[in-house]
Design a protein that fits this description.
- Helices cover 38% and strands 13% of the residues.
- The chain is of the alpha/beta class.
- Strands 16, 17, 18, 19, 20, 21, 22 and 23 form an eight-stranded mixed sheet that branches. Strands 9, 10, 11, 12, 13, 14 and 15 form a seven-stranded mixed sheet that branches. Strands 4-3-5-6-7-8 form a six-stranded parallel sheet, with helices on both faces.
- One of its GO terms (biological process) is protein N-linked glycosylation.
- Its EC number is 2.4.1.155.
- It is found in: Golgi apparatus membrane.
Length: 715
């Protein structure tokens, strides 16, 4: 047994646990037999009598005791020998919410194995080697449900692109020492415990964006050479984390067996249930894949509760950059992204020759998307006069009839036996197509049409990559959690000005045209523009395999939320600012923007402080918009550097008073009086947020063309 080590000892524990459960259930049955419900147990009791030999209870009790004694004796032997392990002696925390904790620790004594400690130290020295073969990953992923099969098919289809990107990246990374990370990927939304509403809809036109992103995340982590474990059930999660079955009454003991854990909001909730008090200790290792983003005001539990930002999501008190989005729309978060299929030169030439100039494909695979999107498209608010028309189908027919005048319209709407009545007769519906056939359809089409829903999906990028122009509606007013049912309850106040803001902002014309669908003149003008335009396939670098690998590698090597040190001491009390100290900022030529002075204190951080650009925003303007307006992006990493008194003197602001408070728009300057404000709570540093009473002080940075997540000095 001692030679067997951890595995043998674990088996003994499991046997003991199972026997203990059997005893409890038999005891429960015995109690039930004394109640009025006993007649329901007669048949079961008869079967048990035929199965059980005389004295079964006594034998089970004896076996359980023997197994427990052996396990305890094994602990004692290991403690005395010191060869295979040592028993961790520590006080069991007392918490009225977990009354059984101490007794469970008595039963399940904790052993810390030197071999595991050695592995932890070695992990820092195991070099991550770039891989080009996805075979081992495909085997590990399995195919137990349709969602996993979809992800496997996607990985196979992109195998060549990942291999090419791996070769290019390998040459770049040869000079870097990259430690191999132990990574757990727990896809919470695919677990049965979360309901897994996605898997049954994979073959019925359901949303695939999340599965596309998770497949690409897995591929990127594998190609980058990290040690990967994949979980799509709570049972697997418990096994990988080493937590006992149940709801996690006891906190996790010993070191976390992973350096990084990628999950989603469902998975985060499951980890809370099963890790208990340990989650707070280990949450710095977690990365949350979050499609629409989480802003700091919603993330800080106390602040969200007090100021009306509390939702069913958010409130986890994570560092904002631990949330990872599908598009770079929330600078407070990290942009994870996904990949779109790239074309080789032969394919690009073929597409140019095969394009059908008057062919349009509609974005929407479910009939519900057509109903919901078209009604929502014409109903910007409930009071809008076109709402009644849209309800009777007139708004929909008007838009499609205009488009049909100039182009042949194709759809890919799922149906089983009969053509969906929501799809007009003049639309040629191909039904739900496999991904490679859908790609072929896009390669022929000139136009890809968005109806306003779904928001911010991957399909428009795939269409643009295949040489289509993407036509989408402009939203007036913009949609957000304050006026739109879809966004309501999401932990963000972000305003969405069109169906796909990334395509509008970062790609734009001639590949993306955004118009007011309520204006017949504007729609017709856009269609004429599309018919005359000649466009080539286009894909931003950040959505290529190489771009994603470059970005994810940067995060893994440089983001560390377990050892966060403030570069400057915070001011912890309100005071009058009587002096005018020198500023660590210097003005840029012919600009109101300031940069970090080359002779100022240099503090190691990523992105490097040399990329910092400082500006004072107008009132009622977020730092997201203020930075965008000067061709930069807001960088939350730099907030601690500017949360100092010297910032205001550098900007030429004369502060008669200085306050330090918890408010997600601070640091800032009051509009109506000479009062300045610093941020008291680091978790509330926020690029998002605006105020009519304050002008925000904003930290910005430059970015690489086609790779907005990285600055010029980041690599």
């Amino acid at each position: 047994i001692v030679q067997g080590g951890l595995e043998s000892r674990g088996v003994l524990r499991k046997i003991s646990d199972m026997l203990e459960i059997i005893l409890k259930r038999i005891d429960t049955l015995a109690k039930l037999s004394n109640t009025s419900e006993s007649h329901r147990l007669e048949e079961l009791s008869s079967a048990l009598d035929r199965f059980q030999p005389v004295g079964l209870m006594e034998r089970i009790q004896a076996i359980a005791q023997n197994v427990s004694d052996i396990a305890v004796r094994m602990d004692q032997i290991l403690q005395k020998t010191g060869k295979d392990g040592i028993v961790g002696q520590c006080e069991v925390p007392k918490d009225p919410r977990y009354p059984d904790c101490a007794s469970k620790v008595d039963i399940h004594s904790i052993v810390v194995y030197p071999a595991l400690q050695l592995h932890k130290h070695r992990a820092g020295f195991n070099k991550a080697m770039v891989r080009s073969d996805l075979g081992p990953l495909l085997e590990q992923l399995g195919s137990g449900k349709e969602s996993l099969s979809f992800m496997r098919r996607r990985m196979r289809r992109l195998t060549t692109q990942w291999a090419v990107a791996a070769r290019r990246l390998h040459e770049h990374l040869l000079t870097f020492q990259r430690p191999q990370k132990r990574v757990l990927v727990h896809v919470g939304f695919l677990t049965e415990e979360s309901g897994d509403v996605f898997s049954p809809k994979v073959l019925k036109g359901g949303p695939l964006g999340e599965m596309v992103q998770w497949a690409d995340i897995l591929a990127a982590l594998h190609v980058l050479g990290h040690n990967l474990k994949i979980s799509v059930s709570v049972k697997e999660l418990q096994g990988f984390l080493g937590v006992p079955p149940g709801r996690g009454s006891c906190p996790l003991r010993g070191p976390l067996p992973f350096d990084l854990i990628y999950t989603d909001y469902h998975g985060l909730q499951q980890m809370k249930q099963h890790m208990g008090l340990s989650l707070k200790k280990h949450k710095c290792h977690i990365r949350v894949i979050d499609t629409f983003g989480t802003e700091p005001a919603y993330n800080h539990e106390e602040y969200a509760t007090l100021h009306g930002y509390r939702t069913n999501w958010g409130y986890w008190n994570l560092n904002g950059r631990q949330y990872m989005t599908m598009f770079p729309h929330t600078p407070d978060n990290s942009f994870m992204g996904f990949v779109a299929e790239e074309l080789n030169q032969t394919e690009r030439i073929s597409i140019q020759n095969d394009k059908v100039n008057n062919m349009a494909v509609v974005y929407g695979k479910e009939t519900s998307m057509w109903k919901r999107s078209l009604k929502a498209m014409f109903c910007m608010t409930k009071q809008h006069y076109t709402c009644k028309k849209a309800e009777h189908g007139q708004g929909k027919d008007k838009f499609l009839s205009i488009l049909h005048r100039y182009m042949d319209i194709h759809g890919t709407v799922y149906y089983e036996t009969q053509r969906p009545p929501e799809v007009p007769a003049f639309v040629r519906n191909h039904g739900l197509l496999p991904q490679h056939e859908f790609q072929q359809l896009l390669r022929k089409a000139k136009l890809f049409v968005g109806f306003g829903f779904p928001y911010e999906g991957p399909a428009p990028l795939e269409a643009i990559a295949n040489g289509c122009i993407f036509l989408q509606p402009r939203f007036q007013p913009p949609r957000s959690s304050f006026n739109n049912e879809f966004f309501r309850g999401k932990p963000t106040s972000r305003e969405v000005s069109s169906q796909h803001p990334y395509a509008e902002q970062y790609i734009g014309k001639p590949h993306v045209i955004t118009v007011d669908y309520n204006s017949s003149e504007e729609v017709e003008a856009a269609i004429w523009e599309i018919l005359k335009a000649k466009v080539e396939p286009f894909l931003p670098y950040e959505y290529t395999c190489e771009g994603m690998l470059e970005r994810v590698n940067g995060y893994i090597q440089h983001q560390d939320f377990c050892h966060l040190d403030r570069p400057f001491p915070s001011t912890n009390e309100s005071r009058l600012w009587l002096g005018n100290p020198p500023s660590p900022f210097m003005p840029l030529p012919n600009s109101t923007v300031l940069a970090w002075a080359s002779n100022a204190t240099s503090v190691p951080c990523w992105p490097p402080v040399s990329a910092l650009r400082l500006l004072l925003a107008p009132k009622v303007c977020s730092c997201v918009k203020a930075c965008q307006d000067v061709g930069l992006v807001c960088e939350p990493v730099f907030f601690p550097f500017i949360n100092i008194m010297e910032t205001f003197s550098g900007l030429g602001v004369q502060c008669q008073a200085l306050e330090v408070e918890m408010k997600h728009v601070f640091p800032a300057v009051a509009v109506e009086r000479s009062e300045c404000f610093l941020q008291k709570e680091p978790l509330l540093f926020s690029c998002a947020g605006e105020s009519s009473k304050h002008r925000r002080v904003c930290p910005c940075r430059d970015y690489l063309r086609g790779q907005v997540a990285l600055c010029r000095d980041c690599l």
